[in-house]
Amino acid sequence: MSTPSLPIPWPENAEIKVYSGGCHCKKVRYEFEHPDIYTMPVINCNCSICEDRGYLNVFTHDNKFKFTAGADEVTTYKFGSNNVHHRFCRVCGTTIGPVVPVKGMVVVNTRTIDDIDLKLLQLRPVDNRTSRGPPSA
Ligand SMILES: [Zn+2]
């Protein structure tokens, strides 16, 4: 198992768990693979989109993420280079996290994981505010 392409590479020989989660109205449901969420850094970025959407992010490969319900209720917001597709439920607006197709990467907003205890997350502050501005009109 090699994950060097992820912003937070997974530890060698980490036990991989399957997490489930979804949006508030429960139309959109997902599952993804990731090492124990509470043992890994969770990115708390202050760039405009992360802050506005309340992202607390972990990363997985797109072949380790799947929708188990409501994939057709998911819509996306894109801006700038359009490389990052910010996905949210079109019914309730819950932002589950972006997909980055050019990197084969899915970002999961840990807030939407079932039964997540935010107090136990190892938040890693990232200062991207200066390098990414708001979308140009
Ligand atoms: Zn929803």
Automatic annotation (TrEMBL):
Gene3D superfamilies: 2.170.150.70
Matches recorded under InterPro entries: CENP-V-like, CENP-V/GFA, Mss4-like_sf
Pfam families per record: GFA
Family stated for the protein in its record: Belongs to the Gfa family.
High-level lineage: Eukaryota, Fungi, Dikarya, Basidiomycota, Agaricomycotina
Protein name (database record): Mss4-like protein
Keyword Zinc: yes
Alphabetic keyword roster: Metal-binding, Zinc
Signal peptide: none
UniProt organism field: Mycena maculata
PANTHER family named among the record's database cross-references: CENP-V_GFA DOMAIN-CONTAINING PROTEIN, CENTROMERE PROTEIN V
Keyword DNA damage: no
Domain of life according to the entry: Eukaryota
